[in-house]
Amino acid sequence: MKHEDVICPFCGCLCDDIEVTVENGHISDVKNACGISRSKFLNHGANRIASPMIDGKEATLEEAVKEAGCILSAARRPLVYGLSSTECGAIGKAVEIAEATGGALDNTSSVCHGPTILALQQVGESKATLGEIRNRADLVIFWGSNPTEAHIRHIARYSAMPKGMYVPEGRKGRKIIVVDIRDTGTSKLADQFIKVQPNRDFELLQALRASVRGQSLKVSEVAGVPIEQVVDLANQMKEARFGVVFFGLGLTQSDGRHMNIDAAVGLVAELNRHTKFLLTPMRGHYNVGGANTVTTWQTGYPYAVDFSRGYPRYNPGEYTSVDLLAGGEADAALVIASDPVSNFPADAARHLAKIPVVTLEQKTTPTTMVSRVVIPVATAGLEAEGTAYRMDGVPIRLRKLFEPPPGVRSDEEVLTMILGELKGGSGQ
Amino acid sequence: MKQVKVTLVSGRTMRQGIGLEEGKQSEGYLQSVRTVMLCPEDASALGLAEGQPVKVSTGNGMVVVHWASDKSLGKGMAFFPYGPWANQVYASSTDGTGMPILKGIDAAITPAEGERVLSLSEIVESLKGDL
Residues of B numbered 67-86 whose beta carbons fall under 8 angstroms of chain A's beta carbons: which are they? Predict the structure, then answer.
């Protein structure tokens, strides 16, 4: 059976035009997908965790849920983490579990665009949907982001190539500029590449801001960029009809972190005195936007939430996962749809390997390898439906294309069972 | 011993993304994340032979990995895909932001003759303190 307009649940682009052919419960063909998406669909059944596990031994789902409940109940400082590669219903249940256990709740944005959120909370945001950008943008700047490796169809679908209502020439009607510390696949596609020195984006952003404001900088270069090029870029930005900066972890994971984004927002605010200009983060996991959104609905805060006093408190740097783990504070963890052992600095991963961990996952990962309880779950967007938020904040409904393996439930169903266990063992 | 000082940058690659969907024990994923990319000049300065491992050292740790040449990198810059091997050299300090620094880190690359690249299970066991 052929399914059309399937949503790809991999990156924040949430491409919605995938064609998937399913035969006997397995995907036999995929069209319109990028390399990573194709791998996701075609390998969905490969290397799946065969059964719930407790201490490396096979267990029933009920036994695993009961053990998860025991671990989380006994913990004084449990951490609920992950959530960016599952759908919003599961995220809502995870928030309830964090509240029920008096634990900390965090999602993967704390190690990707957490600094973006910190800055935007301070200074606001100028944004639009990707559809608006596709139809209007004539200047597209990728700053510290490389969609040719991480958001592969972004360029073709949303930002550089497509013909839009007010950009009928498509690529020829848009100017593409890349600012990065190294040549990338994206810089090779660009009309202009500006190489900034590592850890000096803040300076370049502030120099651009000053230049847009009309101030003359009495220096020959800023962050390795000749001043003539800085002034020229500022002028190109001012002269654009509709400009957008798509920025990535090149700004959030280097020196300056949230202050880099603060400077970028300041630049964009300045540009809006002259023309229409936007700033959009390139969100990585397909529903990291949903993790922030649902957590905000239910607690008031997007990540780094603590329930130890019975009500939510917010403090990135204290209630964020790397800090809670590296400081030895968390004494148990519930990990959903994430692999922190592969993605956290070794000190944090080392602590995770020493405390009891419950992980909901499809395939074996370094995190499942250190977990006391592992529960296999259905893949949202293939074996379970739900909602995900695209990188521009647009919610998109994921479809269920076929049944998960026998006995395997969705993240939301398993989390509902764990919550029931915590609330008295009814499983409801 | 020969050594080059580099600025270490982490990030995603398409190969890593394809590999992780095959499974994190798949050869495609493992090969993509246990290889540090060096510019041809730095690799040449180290006198590296093909297949010879290198040691990546920072103020926070060191790890032995494979290397590959990447012409797009400038001299003095190395690219290390996110993953269990790269994590060995990053600090967990977030300076009150929640975010560790994963890009733009001072590092040294040296030949690691006679040493071997740990397997994924060995990395995981080392985290548990069993190695």
Answer: 72-74, 77, 79, 82-84
Chain B residues with CB under 8 Å of A250 CB are 103
Does residue B10 sit at the A interface (CB-CB below 8 Å)? yes
The whole-chain average pLDDT of chain A stands at 96
Residue of B nearest to A41 (CA): B21
pLDDT of residue B130: 56
pLDDT, tens digit (0-9, with 9 covering 90-100), for A128-140: 999 999 999 999 9
For residues A134 and A224, state if they share a domain. yes
Task: Please tell me if residue B40 touches chain A, with a CB cutoff of 8 Å.
Answer: no
Confidence at residue B131, expressed as pLDDT on a 0 to 100 scale = 52
Are both A101 and A128 inside the same structural domain?
no
Domain of residue A295 covers 50-112+286-422
Nearest to A295 by CA among A123, A88, A110, A101: A88
Residue of B nearest to A45 (CA): B22
Closest-CA distance of chain A to residue B115, Å: 20
Look at the block and give the residue holding tokens 């029933």: A60
Residues of B in contact with A325 (CB under 8 A): 92
Domain assignments of chain B as residue spans, ordered by start: 4-128
Q: Which among A260, A281, A302 is the end of a domain?
A: A281
Q: To 10 degrees, what angle do helices A288-299 and A88-101 make?
A: 50
The CATH number that applies at residue A130 is: 3.40.228.10
pLDDT tens figures, A175-228: 999 999 999 999 999 999 999 999 999 999 999 999 999 999 999 999 999 999
Distances (CA, A) of B92 to A320, A324, B2, B37, B83: 12, 10, 29, 23, 15
Binned at pLDDT 50, 70 and 90, residue A388 comes out as very high
CA-to-CA distance for A242 and A386, rounded, in angstroms? Answer: 34
Chain A residues with beta carbon closer than 8 angstroms to that of B129: 350, 353-354
Residue A35 forms part of a structural domain: no
- Answer yes or no: pTM beyond 0.90: yes
Residues A118 and A262 in one domain: yes
Cα distance between residue B82 and residue A315, in whole Å = 26
A249 contacts in B (CB within 8 Å)?
A: 11, 102-103
Q: Is domain B4-128 in CATH 2.60.40.2380, yes or no?
A: no
Per-residue pLDDT, A123: 86
Q: Are A141 and A191 in contact (CB under 8 A)?
A: no
Name residues whose C-beta falls within 8 Å of residue A54's C-beta, 6 or more positions apart in sequence: A63, A64, A67, A372, A373
Is pLDDT of A314 > 50? yes
Question: What mean pLDDT is predicted for residues A104-123?
Answer: 93
CATH of the domain at A84: 3.40.50.740
Q: Is residue A123, in this structure, part of any structural domain at all? A: yes
CB contact under 8 A, A182 and B73: yes
